[in-house]
Amino acid sequence: MENKNTTNYHDELNKKNIVHLREILDTLPAFCGQYFRGMQEYISTRTRIAYAYDIRVFFEYLHDSNPIFKKMPIKEYPLEILDKITRLDIEEYLEHCAYYVKDGKEYMNDERGKSRKLASLRSFYNYFYRNEMIEKNPAALVPMPKLHEKEIVRLDPDEVAILLDTVESGEKLTKKQLQYHEKTKVRDTALLTLLLGTGIRVSECVGIDIQDVDFNNNGIKIRRKGGYEAVVYFGSEVETALLDYLEQREHIIPVEGHENALFLSMQNKRITVRAVENLVKKYSSLVTSLKKITPHKLRSTYGTSLYRETGDIYLVADVLGHKDVNTTRKHYAALEEDRRRMAAKAVVLREKTD
């Protein structure tokens, strides 16, 4: 029988996000609440928080830089204030976003950061404009920043092997790191083997419960981005690493509320996304100093290997949980180009004669 006090990771995270969103909304004009209520059925709490932060940065900029908006507190801004904002105001705001200081902390946004800030603002304005609550939509007049293609960073096959060997051996770790390594190497090996062997997201990984792992079918039930559940399958290397860890996991007494969590921290609580990011950074920096490896780069590494082996972009999209195959295609465009070049040599029209 399942412990009623046991934390359901995704539900608890959702609750925290809802509380956090309310705290941010409490610093914004009252009419913003209507916009966020309008999107709650189809936008995740995490994304709504990102939108709320972006919109708050916009209002704070207006308050600090514009004499009209400085006269009253942000919370008291009426909806009509949106019609006083011009295209120039928004363009100057994006320029401001490139670099600004708030509460002694520096913030910088590259073209992608600015693009997200403008996308948030466009969505915000669109809502009120579509519902005929404002007369103008200046955000729609500002062109999106031109995005340059980012190089996809991934580990080469030999780097993957060296990474996993390093996790198992602890080679090159400092004396202090080695003290922890003795306690965590089996867990770390299982965790990194799982990420590299399935391509799941780090948020999906930390949310796995013990009962989500099915060794009869070598499948794991995960909660995808967007909230839906899916089963991902794993091979023999992942199976061996997980079984080794579960043998050790049986002798650990988790903190109350974390009994079902598959991966536990040193404090015997469910491991966090930040902790996984840190351990990936720690081990990968010993393997390559030229590539900045994150859990998402391990996902790219898996996607690349799968595409090279199968040549099936639809399979890669399905396994990675991409809703749109064009998202996948964008990530693996260089590999597709290589395959198209191979196609040119694959068909022989006339056999050469000596």
* Order of neighbouring strands in the sheet with most strands: 3-4-5
Our estimate of the beta-strand percent is 5-15%
Topology pattern, helix = H, strand = E:
HHHHHEEHHHHEEEHHHHHH
Count of runs of 4 or more consecutive helical residues: 15
Query: From the alpha-carbon coordinates, what is the Rg to the nearest angstrom?
Result: 25 Å
| Euclidean distance between termini CA atoms | 76 Å
**What level of helicity do the residues show?**
55-70%
In total, the number of strands is: 5
Cα shape: globular
Q: How many structural domains does the protein architecture include?
A: 2
Based on helices, strands and strand pairing, what is the structural class?
A: mainly alpha
CATH architecture level-2 label of the largest domain: Orthogonal Bundle
Reported by name, the CATH topology of the largest domain is hpI Integrase, Chain A
Which CATH C-level class of the largest domain is it? Mainly Alpha
The biggest sheet amounts to: 3 strands, antiparallel
What does this structure look like?
The protein is mainly alpha-helical. It folds into 2 domains: 9-141, DNA polymerase, domain 1 (Orthogonal Bundle); 157-344, Intergrase catalytic core (hpI Integrase, Chain A), CATH 1.10.443.10. Helices cover 56% and strands 6% of the residues. Strands 3-4-5 form a 3-stranded antiparallel β-sheet, with no helix packed on it. It has a two-stranded antiparallel sheet with strand order 1-2. β1 and β2 form a beta hairpin. α5 (87-97) runs antiparallel to α6. The longest helix has 24 residues, at 175-198. The chain is globular. The termini are far apart. The model is unreliable at 1-5 (pLDDT under 50).
